[in-house]
């Protein structure tokens, strides 16, 4: 039986952190044996908000493919590629731009939010407004059946489904399937300061961080502010370190919770336990990542070979698209 097609990607805007891993990458790795997986580095998407500063774009691209492979994405099982190396994405984006209503783009859930949140950048551009059409092209050029998303991302995928329906209706051909969300229950990690883990907040633990850097970050984590002395009763439900215990030290969670509430374990001791548990997970990935980065030629080969495979898949779709639109000779 032919495997169903899955598509997802990540922007090369900096090093993958633990929030990214447990929010998406861990799930991608688990899908590789069940689906025909396509995972890409979305460098064109990075330009929608970062077009004015591209000096680190190539470096971040190499870093991201190293992160992908170090985390367990296998080039033998999944097609790992660079968006800008598959020109069919741009061609399909252009055709979608011709027939996607402006109102659809303006109602995108994150459009106004990002305009407000990124007020320090000039992103009132055609590219930023049109990124849902580019996202649709990314997905539909592979005729993907599923896109792994959380529930909060379903409205974004719905725009892709609407664009697919409109194209099929306008040109009276069922070129595109309507991709479905592959709902994932991601593990949520807060940042070291208790807020959402985000590069913009400077509160991340990255796969690129050395073991010593990770140790320092864990030992500086925000804990229960009400605990002044070691024997003060704690409130683990508001403690950042306890949130990490639930991911990295699940077996000891009941014991840690009881000791914390009873004032039987201090925050420093709790952090030391957590630091050791994170190291067991983080250090092997970090070391594999560093080893991969020592052979940049190999990483480039992975991207180039994956992009070649992706181009073949994308071109097969574009032949159907051009025929439907009746464009060209």
Outline the secondary-structure elements.
Blueprint: E1 5-10, H1 18-31, E2 36-41, H2 43-50, H3 57-71, E3 78-82, H4 88-99, H5 102-106, H6 111-117, H7 126-129, H8 131-140, E4 146-149, H9 154-170, E5 180-183, H10 211-219, H11 240-248, H12 253-261, H13 267-293, H14 296-325
Parallel strand pairs: 1-2, 2-3, 4-5
Helix pairs in contact: 3-13, 4-8, 4-14, 8-9, 10-13, 11-13
Q: Can you tell me about this structure?
A:
The protein is 53% helix and 8% strand. It is built from 14 helices and five strands. The protein is mostly helical. Helix 8 (131-140) crosses helix 9. The chain has helices spanning 18-31, 43-50, 57-71, 88-99, 102-106, 111-117, 126-129, 131-140, 154-170, 211-219, 240-248, 253-261, 267-293, 296-325; strands spanning 5-10, 36-41, 78-82, 146-149, 180-183. It is elongated and about 80 Å long. It has two domains: 5-189 and 296-325, 3-Layer(aba) Sandwich (Rossmann fold), CATH 3.40.50; 199-290, Tyrosyl-Transfer RNA Synthetase (Orthogonal Bundle). Helix 9 (154-170) links the parallel strand 4 (146-149) and strand 5 (180-183). The strands form two sheets. The protein has a three-stranded parallel sheet.
Please describe the structure with a list of short key phrases separated by commas or semicolons.
mainly alpha, 329 residues, 14 helices, 2 domains, Tyrosyl-Transfer RNA Synthetase, 53% helix, two-stranded parallel sheet, Rossmann fold
